[in-house]
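Worked example

This section walks through a single chain of length 635. The input is the sequence exactly as stored; nothing has been trimmed or padded.
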Amino acid sequence: MAESGSAPVETRHRHDGRAWLERLLSALSVCATLACIVYVVNVPTYFDHPIFREQFFGLIYGLLFASGFLLFPAERGSRQRVPWYDLVLAAAGFAAGLNVTVMWPELVASPGVITPERVFFGVLAVLVVLELTRRAFGLPLVILVALFIFYARFSYLFPGILQGRGSTWSRVATFLYLDTGSMLGMVAMVMFGTVFAFMLFGAALFATGGGSFFTDLSLALMGGRRGGPAKVGVLGSALFGTLSGSASSNVVITGSITIPMMKRLGYRPAVAAAVEAVASTGGSLMPPVMGATAFVMAEFLSVPYREVALAALVPAILYYLMLFIFVDLEAGKQGLKGLPADQIPKLGAVLAGGWPYLAPLAVLIACLFYFYISPDLSALLGTLAVLALGLASAQRPSWRDLGEALTGTGRMMVEVGVIGAAAGLIIGSINLTGLGLLFSQILISASGGHLGLLLLLTALASAVLGMGMPVTASYIILAVLAAPALIEAGVSPMAAHMFILYFAMLSFLTPPVCVAVYIAATIAGSRPMETAFESMKMGLVAYLVPFLFVADDALLLAGTSLENVVAAVTGMLGFGVLAVAIQGYFTGPLGVGVRIVLAVAALFLVTHEWVYNAVGLAIAGAVLAWLWRGPSRVR
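Given that input, the structure is written out below as tokens.
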């Protein structure tokens, strides 16, 4: 679920250390997991002793900060022992978090008061977050966070519209550390609540064997069809997206299986890697469980998460439909068949042995969309369903398996906590200076009031911020700085934030920094830039559909029932025809003229004017029917 630009914690270099270090890390991870569970369930209220949520945040931050310095070395690579300064930093990080837990009631009684103790712990917390951000995500994000902090301090020195009041270092440090508009605010609430709960759900489902079931189900459904391994990759990544919501994790988990299968069948390495990269990136955009950024988006919009998931449904279907058609046409073009029958599990046997794994997903979906339970509690109820399933199954998980699920969730939460804290520092700096309003005015002025140019500027900003930066951080910055300008220009809030979400996610596919592509290319042994080109071609719908749902938010299911159905159907037809035009293959190779005609028809189909839709449908239908009559006419 952590949508960072880095590889999962398990794939990164860690301190080798001694046995005591592993035990300490496990203890910290389990404590962080349990603290998040207690926060989500709000256990203290059941004992008539409620505590502030900021006290939970402080404790969780402290545990995650301490774990971070033990997990991530100061320099890339593996070491045989933990140096003394990392132990000191781990203790400092824990103290910075625990101080909030212990002192918060006193802080509430004297808000805004600046004391030496608060300044000291504020400076300590900011430095801890910056160093952990450098270790976990690299220098670019550290520089960006530092720029926002320096702007909060020295904004009075900036010229023109960027000039602000500025603040003292003491006020900046105290505000960033203790204000609920910074580290202890909305991002922490989402990360330690909803994002954590869904990560725990995925870890529990994997621990009980759910991962194997979804892999076998994908193989049984798609393995024998034309280009079977590629279709297994598409379906498998979509299914795994409901468990992890992380593009990087999806590539590692499913790509290690599907990419070698695709290569053995005859797919070019770059194409095999691109299929997996695009399919895995889409997992973070596919309801019911989207990436961590979608939960943050729901908080920005002040709407239930289910509304975000419903709005994302049609664009996600268009994304996977076009990708599926792409891989099918590629298989036809290359003459690739499905997997041999002896390599494909029987669908009946897979369902007979694994259908109970669908029950937790059914519980999750029912809680979210039928009973209207909050996402974090829905995910915990889904986790309880997973545990009940495990206890009732013949291959029940051991206590060790469950312990590893708790430990693994805690370790994955380290990156979530670090990116949440870094994003909190950015939001705090913006709130302290009022930069959000200023930047919106700059965007509107630069676009000259033209919505199309404003959208292009926002997309460009997303691409630039996405270079070497986690998706969540990129989204949060633009949600604060650019979304108000889009909304002021007449874009609906849901469409504005979904536009930013899509282009933030596309950093996984867009060069030069395209993490999902690099991971997939490494597995496939292909050239990264060639793989990136193939990925952008296959994922073209993700670059186009945001502009379409801004123009017609019926694609986000925001129109009447008829408008929603028409938008969905014409979108599916249009992007299907566009896939044929780009691939240059239908029943046989297509000439340039035919491809241009089909591309124009696709453009007419995806517009939101029914006259153009009718013309596009007539052209596409006539051309495809003509092509279907025989390969001799395809040129």
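What to look for: The CA atoms of residues 229 and 503 lie 28 Å apart.
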